[in-house]
Amino acid sequence: MMTPMAKRISHDLTYDAPIEDVRAMLLDEEFRRTVATEQRALRSTVDIQGTKVHLETVQPAAGIPSFAKKFVGDEIVIDQRETWTGDQADVHVTIPGKPGDMKGTATLKSVDGGTVETVDLEIKVSIPLVGGKIEGLIGDMLVKALKAENRAGRAWLARAEG
User: Fold this and answer.
1) What's the rounded Cα separation, in Å, for the pair 146 and 149?
2) Are 91 and 104 spatial neighbours (Cβ–Cβ below 8 Å)?
3) pTM of the model as a whole
4) pLDDT tens per residue across span 12-21
């Protein structure tokens, strides 16, 4: 039996704000709803209890290659959980009912008066033959989602300053 391979994604999100402001933003339900809108989610729910974040977003499967669409259907439900301890979160993302997940961390670091959030995730899809292709596809989608989150965060923090 073959051990499933995994794809690793590391992406930096930069903010022109102190680390405390970025941490507060990431633990703000309204900000997370704004991110879902920026990511063009069909629906989303946000539940933040202290330093525990639970997000569920539903994304359209439009534009996904046919080999992957038969596994996910017309909509993709994404269940994301984060547990923050200081400037780092453990992140776990699943697509309920589908074989695979993403696990890793989000880390905040002060850099030149601003903040860099580094998201480092390992993507595993346990489907014979096409799992690697789907991991690559998910990785590409994840980077697009993080770029949308970064845009929303920069705008959010700029409004907070103004």
Assistant:
1) 5
2) yes
3) 0.88
4) 999 999 999 9
Q: Quote the CA–CA distance of 105 and 139 in Å, as a whole number.
A: 15
Report residue 108 as tokens: 């905040």
* CA dist., res. 107 & res. 85, Å (int): 10
CA 71 to chain centre: 20
User: Which residues in 104-125 are b (16+ Cβ under 10 Å) and which e?
Assistant: bebebeeeeebbbbebebebbb
Tokens of 18: 């102190």
Separation CA 115–CA 19 (nearest Å)? 5
**Tens of pLDDT, residues 80-126:** 999 999 999 999 999 888 888 999 999 999 999 999 999 999 999 88
Tell me which amino acid residue 139 is.
G
